[in-house]
């Protein structure tokens, strides 16, 4: 009996000891608690008051002017709504997503002077603009480009237009060359296709760079279409590749710069409002409207007040006459090559802010702000 009671008490004591041991924090946690607490950099009393005043008084949109993400700004705003304003600089460490590194960068930006609109600097973060061309154009090379050729490649034809950039902002670009060439057949043997592409490449005038529309990428599909349609797409890709190679070969040996660039698809149609849904509309009216401007007369004198004309184009009389005499479908293809080139000039070479805003994702928001 005594042995049984002793055994029972021993089991109870062991169970109690195990429960107490399970309630103890791990040894690693005990070591961490013994470490020094997280400490922010030293701030003077004046800096401390400034930081707390900005955080407690500014809203989410105003805080975004500093080095903080929108998600963290929202979390900080919600924390203040529940717990009240920050009393100490270290209180921000209780907010989810704010560690020592993040807080230090944020506080540093709060102590720096905020650029004002009167100084000409941007008060808000610059909007992100998707790249317009492939590959990327080096800034030094961009400044040296004075002429460019836009090449529009179809299945049975190639069209091109050459522009010379103005020397000053008070002069328009000059259309110096405009041509359309028919390949005719849709199903050509590769040897014959190479021969015709080489002939076309010799007809395309020299320039500092050449721009084509970015070709459609091949995609796997359960319904690829008819065999004829596949052959058409293949031939267009072949023509694009051959002409690209021929134009790239114009670079002098030893030079590492690129001279062939591909503009993003449908960018030209978006810039000149020629896109309805996913369908392009005719460019003829746009071209004719540009030809009717005063600087496209036989002679034009100086205006009372100089106008920035570098984004516009002067059409020589012989090229205007040629455009009016060709077939309508040829006018459309010439217009597409010309507008492709002009879009490249405005968006990439001249970096016209109005043109960039019209094709950027935030263009609608920017226009609303300008109207206000």
Automatic annotation (TrEMBL):
Chain's gene name: LOC111595334
InterPro entries listed in its UniProt record: TEFM (IPR039150)
GO BP annotations listed: transcription elongation by mitochondrial RNA polymerase
Gene3D superfamilies: AF1531-like domain (1.10.150.280)
Native source species: Drosophila hydei
An example Gene Ontology CC term for this record: mitochondrial nucleoid
Source organism, top-level taxon: Eukaryota
Name of the protein: Uncharacterized protein LOC111595334
UniProt GO molecular function: DNA polymerase processivity factor activity
